[in-house]
Amino acid sequence: xREVAKMANVSIATVSMVLNGNPRISKATQLRVQRVINKLxxxxxxxxxxxxxxxxxxxxxxxxxxxHAFADLYFGEVISGVCDRAGKLGYRVMLDQAKPDFIKxxxxxxxxxxxxxxxxxxLGCNDRHHFLEDFIEPNYxxxxxxxxxxxxxxxxxxxxxxxxxxxxMRCLMQMGHRRIGxxxxxxxxxTTSELTQTYHRLLTEAGCPADDTWIEDGAFTxxxxxxxxxxxxxxxxxxxxxxxxxxxMAIGAIHYLHQQGLRVPEQVSVVGFDDLKHSAYTSxxxxxxxxxxxxxxxxxxxxxxxxxxxxxxRVAERLPTYLVLRGxxxxxxxxxA
Amino acid sequence: xREVAKMANVSIATVSMVLNGNPRISKATQLRVQRVINKLxxxxxxxxxxxxxxxxxxxxxxxxxxxHAFADLYFGEVISGVCDRAGKLGYRVMLDQAKPDFIKxxxxxxxxxxxxxxxxxxLGCNDRHHFLEDFIEPNYxxxxxxxxxxxxxxxxxxxxxxxxxxxxMRCLMQMGHRRIGxxxxxxxxxTTSELTQTYHRLLTEAGCPADDTWIEDGAFTxxxxxxxxxxxxxxxxxxxxxxxxxxxMAIGAIHYLHQQGLRVPEQVSVVGFDDLKHSAYTSxxxxxxxxxxxxxxxxxxxxxxxxxxxxxxRVAERLPTYLVLRGxxxxxxxxxA
DNA sequence: CCCATGTGTTAAACTGTTTAAACACATGAA
DNA sequence: TTCATGTGTTTAAACAGTTTAACACATGGG
Lengths: 337, 337
Description:
Chain A is α/β, with parallel strands linked by helices. Chain A is built from 13 helices and twelve strands. Chain A has helices spanning 2-8, 12-19, 27-40, 46-53, 73-88, 100-104, 107-113, 133-136, 161-174, 190-205, 222-235, 247-259, 293-308, and strands at residues 58-63, 92-97, 119-123, 142-145, 155-159, 180-184, 215-217, 241-244, 269-274, 287-290, 316-319, 322-324.
């Protein structure tokens, strides 16, 4: 920078102002300095810029403390959206994981206090992640992705889980299903509970309310989905459909059903939730609720950057979802179980 | 830092030295300063540290310019390994994507020149990614993950593709398969070409060499795998097995075979490569070669940090792979096609 | 002619750390 | 006593920018 200033016969401050498009610099000076910058191929050092300006132009994606958290298509889609958008807006993206040590060392606070990042996107978090509380009072720029909280007043962007669940349930019921098992996970997550409530509401409206024996926890994993299916089937051998809170559990369910020699969808229909890429390639292909995960990443990123730049209003957006009808659903078998 | 220095009656430099465990500081001073640091809850500003020390303690993961690149279990596993290891060693991880604009703007160079990061891990790159060349001459710390190049002398960590392919092919051949189609992708990738060579070698050794009509490109995607299977089947309706260069293409192949009413594995056996999480949950479950992708991420991260810290020797590691026998393979049908 | 106003530029202070060189001061040997 | 040596600490200069108050100068109005 010094070199540029010297060669253009101006002060360092002038060069800085040219770089930042300060309107107090005359056209002539601007052009002269710009030419020298190009000739010297000068590029400002972002570290120094951040040190001075207190903006890092870096965002963090904070993932829950799951093993191999990045090897997950659900998170992957969101992250893709965030990265694409952030890149376009000149922001960098860092990855962090809210492991117990991470929180214990207050690293989530340091993210801001030590100026590692300008803002944080929280994926896959739930009510038990008490560290979220620490973001509220200092009013740090944070957006919760695909969940929201009653107890904490945090900005969020979510998919319309109720709407998606309603479509899925209506579809099953129109096909004649009434004995429908529900596999969910993390009941403390608001979006999940929307799903459960919708499930209850629609069955009740149809005059055949379900009790808790029809609901099992599948931990959002394939194994969990399979195990949950086993438990459901043990209690209700006559069930004709399973509605899973995500695609992985649905795939686990199909896996278990096949193991037991049950045919999908002839004997049991299965509906998932997420519409991950490979759900279109399973056997049978999976009927599922499409979530705009990539788009949600894009929007969350947009809103976060707006907040970083001073936007004050709360963010609370809800994106529409829709059912994708594929091969894992069929008319309910008419005969016996 | 100033405050700490004042309160401990020492200079800022002394505080810095205490922080960095400089042996020239006496035990007494060290203790005194440390106490003040704790009392004030002082934490050094990493930006300023980086500005001074010229180390950012940040690594970049550079992904190829694929759509939704992060929504990929293959990359996801590697990234998980990298993040876990980097976190333990006190390094942060940034995400970058080698899109055309990114390269055109020489942002991959700026990563180093503007001191965004200390080192870069390149995932999913191939011989056509000429930007890799730019890293060689300045000797920037870069590790190529799961590929290597003959034309460029870059450090790498790979899985043993030859070994894995040999196990897969031997397994198929022991089950009586001889008419085996190969679905690969990106032939310019060394690791891929290991696979193809092994395929040719084993078939030739068995006295039934295959020509190029037995090989199709599947672009590493499910769609591609399905399309490749269609082409293979059109030419060789009598094939009894398909060996795919990754799990996604294998899943695409099974998808197409099912669509055509062919049973897997009774009529056609399918073997994949990668052993992604959900390959254990497909129908049928997928026989595949397990790649230690998470471990490769860990090791690549380790080696990169060693290089950043001055290690000079070239990195060229190869991790073992093994076949996982599941439900998509069976004895070759003895009768007609 | 004097002063208020506006425009372009600069010097200096600031961001928070590292590090090389200089500086006290005590010790031990000649 | 004098000088060399070693130890612990400080000084001051980087690192590479941004920001702000001040300044020089031109213009226009009273």
